[in-house]
Specification:
Number of strands: 9
Strand order of the largest sheet: 2-1-5-4-3-8-9
Distance between the termini: 15 Å
Oligomer: single chain
Radius of gyration: 15 Å
Length: about 170
Amino acid sequence: MANRTGELLPEFSVQLLNGTTWRSQDQPAGSMSLLTIYRGMWCGHCKKQLQGLERLHDEFVSRGVDLLAVSADSENRARSMANDYDLHKLTIGFDMAIASARALGVFISKQEKAIEMPLFCEPATFLINKERKVQAAWIASSAFARVVPDDILAYVDFLAQHSDRAPRGSS
């Protein structure tokens, strides 16, 4: 499991709704990334979190943080969700491999409702620093526990003032 702070992000890739592929190893030099893994199109808690990221998109980008939200949903489901939630700035990925999610330490759940995917990721958010290492990780085992986008932005601002700050929880 590679969700320990201070470790390199495991190598994986996801297809994006814009027709390109995001690769964890291709993070642009000097930038940070915020990787948010959400449950799927049926999750109301995910909707609130993703709309919060959409609202703060320009604030994150102005601070050098690229935003990416991914799920195990199919392309059609992800596209429908992005349209229904009015997500036009946020980069959305789909068909996240369950093995990749597990490598990140993400909790995986089985389908209980017809609208859910057979296997899907529980919520997780990773702030990836300029060295492609996990600066912070927020991993939940249910829909009800997740980090608030405004709090992540405050942490990014804190890191800007404390650039020598090693990732916490890495001992």
